[in-house]
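<tokenise_the_fold>
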Amino acid sequence: MNHYQRRSSSCPMTGAAVCIAIALAGCSWPPSADVMFGGVPRSAGSRPPAAGGGLNGLYVGTADIELNGNLACPDTMPITNFEVTGDVVRFGAFAGPIAPDGTVSLRARGMVFNGRFTGSEFNGRVDTTSGPDVIMRPLKTCLYAIRVHRLSA
């Protein structure tokens, strides 16, 4: 029995920054979009916030690649920590107001996030093509479609 057997990693090597972000997310593939876009994933088993009225609540879904300019962009990433409280949305590094018509247009770390709420769903995009090189190099040329729905309380 060899006690010094090399263990394989579940993180594919597509760039140092990607693997660092994946390691912070628990080294799973695909990584959580919450982490890849500058935030934190929701802990397994944690309870969603009380929904209340309007758009309030926790939303879950996916980020699906639309443009993969450098082939380092994950095709699909889960979204687990997209939250609305009052007229403010929080997702990844993004936090800001929801317009009265349900639209969102935010910038963070050089990325652009926009879309619209319709009932208990949100459809939008995250464009990482202008993100800072140090943080976003692996995602520098990625455009993602964001599709989430509100969890029931």
Observations:
- Residues 102 and 117 are 5 Å apart (CA to CA).
- The beta strands are 57-68, 76-85, 88-91, 94-97, 103-108, 111-118, 121-127, 142-150.
